[in-house]
Amino acid sequence: MSRFVQIDPKTATGDAAEAFEAATSQFGGVINLFKVTGNAPNVLKGILALNNEVASSAELDTRLIEQVAMLTSALNRCDYCVNVHMKVGQGAGLTRDDLLLAMEAKATNAKAQALLTFADEVVRNRGLASETAIENARAAGFSDKALLETIGVIGIYTTLQYIRHVADPDHDFPAVSEFNADKFGADRLGKPIAA
After folding, report:
1. What are phi and psi of 178, to 5 degrees?
2. 165 and 78 in contact (C-beta within 8 Å)?
3. Virtual CA dihedral for 165, 166, 172, 174, nearest 10 degrees?
4. Contact of 37 with 159, CB cutoff 8 Å
5. Domain range spanning residue 26?
6. 92 and which of 26, 62, 65, 148 could share a cystine (Cβ 3.0–4.6 Å)?
7. pLDDT at residue 116 above 70?
8. Sign of torsion, CA 20 176 191 148?
9. pLDDT, tens digit, for every residue of 117-166?
10. Could you tell me if 134 and 45 lie in one domain?
């Protein structure tokens, strides 16, 4: 049971209605996480504006964005977002196995692997990525713009995941049975930055 009121988009007015329109435009609907965030429509609008800007000019394709989002969700121990990104990621052309690997910062190709290694360090170490991770991502073909966009994706989903943890909205996607927060959470698998 959600700790915060889940605002019904059908009865929302004012800024909340505008935020829900933006969510529908970007995501095709208003998930329960957005319904609780609608209690602060300025926050939801800000998240959606950042998401729209990152997605509109991203050097990252949708599959890479979803792999980073899945990894971020797992590291932040967010079962709700793992469930969401399993569905959205498969809609973007990733397989279930691709997304399960992403939860462990793994990928089946070298380019995606370099980006996930970078993202893993950014999330685990609160932005303190090693020179090795940065240079490996660059060597794999990612520009500084793409690395900053990756940080933007991490920021969007970390904010939503913190809201999820506080508000605890009702789940509206099937559970990913393989996800275990104690196994995948950053606080359980933390590793130091390489010197």
Report:
1. -75, -15
2. yes
3. 20
4. no
5. 13-57
6. 62
7. yes
8. negative
9. 999 999 999 999 999 999 999 999 999 999 999 999 999 999 999 999 99
10. no
